[in-house]
Protein 1
Amino acid sequence: MLAATRHAFSGVHRRAFSTTPSRAYDVSKLILVGRLGREPEVRTTKSDKEFVSYTVATANYPPPPPNPDGTRMESATTWHQITSFNPAQNQYLQTLNKGTLVYVEANFELREADPNANPSSPASQRQIFLRHESIRVLKLPYQQERE
């Protein structure tokens, strides 16, 4: 059967990639592996909708290249603020503790700066908005492992 299938498609030209235009289903996803920087907290929107906000810290790897004198700067930590609007996930997120090593998948949206905003406010800068999609615990915080 496999030979018949192979023979049937032997004359078909296959492309290595698609040249079709983008669709409405394009994806912008960010995958993070890092530790929770603080306990997830429940907040509410202006329209009284509950959501959970949490922070994941990641280390930039590999570290920066060595300086001319041979010393190497420390890897910098990047803090990512993530928002979840899924009620079932929000209950689970509230059980996680600071320091938990997590694998997070989040959709991201780049928001342009507001030209009319005060230059010292966050609205005057481009922002990346991360919307929680899924999370997996990879390792518990250090104090929970000892118990």
Protein 2
Amino acid sequence: MADQNYQPMSYQMVKAATAVTAGGSLLVLSGLTLAGTVIALTIATPLFVIFSPVLVPAVIAVALLITGFLASGGFGVAAVTVLSWIYRYVTGRHPLGADQLDQARMKLASKAWEMKDRAEHLTGVAAS
């Protein structure tokens, strides 16, 4: 049987040359990026040391503000989602999870009735 994945040698050479060119250029770009980062960090480090009494509290304050806004937004989205689910449940639109809620409610109600009957039985026996 002939190999179905057979490709001419020239096609394989073009693929290899393209891969080497792309890989080499990306390697050069990553090296330039690393060199630029090291140079920028070398220049910026003395400025960070000089301005650190101002920058550190500012960064902490900004981080706390961002965290607070994100948490507030997340809690707001969660509250709207819960209120929407409750509205759909109350209006009878049968939202996702309503069956489990109804089943748990029935199970709790039946256990409550069992405990009530048991308590009446035990107090009735103790009273006689």
Protein 3
Amino acid sequence: MAPQFPKWLRTQKNYSYLDISNVGISDFIPNWFWDLSTQFTYLNLSNNQIRGTIHNPSSDLVFPPAIDLSSNQFEGPIPVFLFKVASVHLSGNRISKLDSLCDVVDDSELSFLDISFNQLSGELPDCWSPFSRLDILILSNNNLSGRIPFTFGKLTSIGSLHLGENNLNEELPPSLKNCSELRVLDMGENKLLGPIPTWIGENLSALAIFILRSNNFYGNIPLSLCHLSRLQLLDLSSNNISGRIPKCFDKFTSMKEIGSSDTAIVIPYISQYPSFIWARQEGFFDEVQFIWKGTPKKYRSILGLVKHIDLSSNMLMGEIPEEITELIGLVSLNLSKNNLSEQIPSRIGRLESLDALDLSNNKFSGVIPLSLSEVDRLNKLDLSNNNLSGKIPTSTQLQSFDATSYLGNPELCGAPLAKCQEEEHETFVDNKESTDKEGQDGFITKGFYISTTLGFVIAFWGVCGSLLLIKSWRHAYFKLLNDVQDWVYVMVAVNKAKLLRLIRS
């Protein structure tokens, strides 16, 4: 299709389905387009470079349709009619305002609203009461500021709420406790403050994903969070949270299971109403971003398999509770940049699913537990800048990391760091014993045996060979033997006679 907006559409009246997505249109959208049909149930213009503003049609739509205008260059405010459809995809545009939201008076059929990666600014309107059917709301990556609206508490059907990467501030409104269907709550990268509310653990029992990363929350981690048995991703990193890690983290049942039957987290929603008597339901594959091995990563298709705890960059103190080793399904654990101390739990090797472990920049002491060498899936390990001591346990896994994983622990030794003193002493003793043995056996060499054998052969055949070959030598030799025999016989007889006479006398 040409870069120009297709003019042939102007002759198409009362269509119900239109999909011209990803066809290379880079033109302004004409005003007449919005009045073509009141019958459509599906409209998709996504993944083009369409410019201009979105206008309200002159007549109301017959059925609440599904509309996808994402990844274009639409700008200006959102017209009110888009808040009366079934689902709206507007991400990746230049939308600046949603004030017309407050013009909706009657209950809306809107089930899905995505306005992420736009240019929304200012405070969110506090007019959300008509949207009790809203299942998914994504407003992340904008310039929104101010408080979270109190009327968000009217979104009683919502399963996924994304407000991350804005400039929202103040405390979380207590009205959010009414959103009991929430499975995904992402408010990371804002300026929210206050203590983490206890009602989150008491009322939002369906939560699987809970992200408050990079805000200004303070105080202790509430024990009520331990009621979130379905929780599989907890990210409270980069706040001002203090106190101890709750021992009741072993109540996170989902993290105690290895793997998951669902690879993704799917939130159902109504995408369109093709008629008055039925609605089309679809599943939204949720997506979240968090820090994985030091790098921001987005997860969608395998989000259901990610089991992750990140409490890094806070002011937590005390020990790692032994109970955390019960979370055998945990894939990533980041407790770095806190004031944690005491010893690393001896049973940390029970976390057999760990792919990444970061305990750096704390005050841990004692030895590295031997059980850690049994975690054969570990691909990232950082124990640097603590007070660990002793020898690094020997294993293929722990020696596969470079020295940076262990630096900043002056009393830690063993590969890949410098050798321990005990190892150097053992090496010295082994070398000395080897040297002594070589000194004792220095003359008994292969040459010694060769020369001995050769000397024996030469001497034997030098004598015996001469006797065999020279007749006169042979006669003289045997005569000598006879003389010796006679002399011995005479000497024995004489001495025997003398002895007998001595005995008789």
